[in-house]
Amino acid sequence: QMQLVESGGGLVQAGGSLRLSCAASGRTFSTNAMGWFRQAPGKEREFVAAERWSLGVTYYADSVKGRFTISREDAKNTMYLQMNSLKPEDTAVYYCAANTRWNPYYDREYYYTGTYDYWGQGTQVTVSS
Questions:
Q1: Strands, DSSP E only, in 1-129?
Q2: For the chain, which ranges sit under pLDDT 70?
C-alpha cells in the first residue's frame, strides 16, 4: 500500500504562483512514475504533469507546458508541482497519483487516470481574475 498526501493549495490571483507538494509513504520503493491531475467542477479529471522515475522523463499537458514544473525530492519521498503564471482556468482540485505496476506502454498511457493505482485526497487551487 502507498499513501499520498497533497498540500500547498490555496487562493491566488491570476499571474501568481503556487507550489503543490505530494508526500508519499508506504511502498514508495515500487514507484514507477508519479503524476498530477486536476478536476474542475463539472469536468472530468484531466492530466497535468508526470515523471517516469527510472528515466527522469517528464510529461506535461499542453495547457500547462512552460508554466508548470514537476519535480521530486527522493530523500523526502515528496513530489512537487511548481505552478507559475496561473490563470483562472487552472482552478481545480489537484490530485497526485502513483503508478506502481510495470507498464511497458507508459509513454503512451501516462495521461490516463487508469494508469495510476494510488491517489491522494486532493488539494484545492483557486485562481481569481
A1: 2-7, 10-13, 18-26, 33-39, 46-52, 57-60, 68-73, 78-83, 92-99, 118-119, 123-128
A2: none
